[in-house]
Amino acid sequence: MEETLVAQLLEEVASYGIFCDEGAARRMIGHLLLVIEKNKVVNLTRITDPTEAVTLHCLDSILPLAVEGVASRSFSSFLDLGTGAGFPGIPFGIMTGSAGVLIDSVGKKVAAVSEFIDVLGLDNLHAEHVRVEDYAARKPGSCDLVLARAVAQSNVLVEYASPLLARHGLLVVEKGRPDDSELEAARRAADLCGMRLVRQHGFELPRELGHREILVFEKVGKPRLKLPRRVGVAKHEPLGI
């Protein structure tokens, strides 16, 4: 099965103009298979069909590399916000070699991701059990890139990312089909947080598995309010509404 999944991933990635060598594809599939096995004892993902998971986890995690302005940049450090089973952080770290911190507020998920990182020998990555507000207070401006896959509304993600990012750093958000009200709230929140929406690109996934909208925000200045706010405030009193 592994060979079939590697071939599938290489074919799908190439169809979006993303270069991926066989070694990187094997490591990504290795991660996916570890997730599927661990999912038998720890709830990490609802997507357990390997063929679908190649698209919805592996391909989806590196799809930002098909977006102009992301693919052309090199990132010395990135943060995966709400990593879950290690997506998108592990595939992105495999593809780019960038140093990455994969954070989640659920300890059992972080423990699983740390195990995957060790098994795969990914010395450029580490996972941390922490809330994003606490991490941002501890390490402000420490990231060139923040990745987030549908872990919250876009305006909330903008607020989370702003204090983490160095100037001209990027927040890359992956969504299904965000409606106009979410996008407008994100733009207003970005204005308050010293951020700006600089790119939006839509993709159709293979085999009619869905639509992905990728939003790219750039840190362009200082926020108009003190960030990060206290834990939980961004979700319960969101900016831009």
Task: Sum up the structure in keywords.
single chain, 241 residues, alpha/beta, 7-stranded mixed beta sheet, 9 helices, 41% helix, globular
Write a structural description.
A seven-stranded mixed beta sheet has the order 3-2-1-4-5-7-6, sandwiched between helices. The mean pLDDT is 96. It is built from nine helices and seven strands, in the order H-H-H-E-H-E-H-E-H-E-H-E-H-E-E-H. The N and C termini lie far apart (47 Å). It is an alpha/beta fold and 241 residues long. It has helices at 2-15, 22-38, 50-62, 89-96, 107-120, 132-138, 154-161, 180-192, 233-236, and strands at residues 77-81, 99-104, 125-129, 143-149, 165-175, 195-204, 211-219. Strand 6 and strand 7 form a beta hairpin.
Give the spatial strand order of the biggest sheet. Answer: 3-2-1-4-5-7-6
What is the succession of H and E elements? HHHEHEHEHEHEHEEH
Helix count from the secondary structure assignment: 9
Gyration radius (Cα, Å) is: 17 Å
In which range does the helix fraction lie? 40-55%
Question: Given the helix and strand composition, which structural class is it?
Answer: alpha/beta
Task: Write a short abstract of this structure.
The chain has helices at 2-15, 22-38, 50-62, 89-96, 107-120, 132-138, 154-161, 180-192, 233-236; strands at residues 77-81, 99-104, 125-129, 143-149, 165-175, 195-204, 211-219.
Element layout with pairings:
Layout: H1 2-15, H2 22-38, H3 50-62, E1 77-81, H4 89-96, E2 99-104, H5 107-120, E3 125-129, H6 132-138, E4 143-149, H7 154-161, E5 165-175, H8 180-192, E6 195-204, E7 211-219, H9 233-236
Parallel strand pairs: 1-2, 1-4, 2-3, 4-5
Antiparallel strand pairs: 5-7, 6-7
Helix pairs in contact: 1-2, 1-3, 2-3, 2-4, 2-5, 7-8
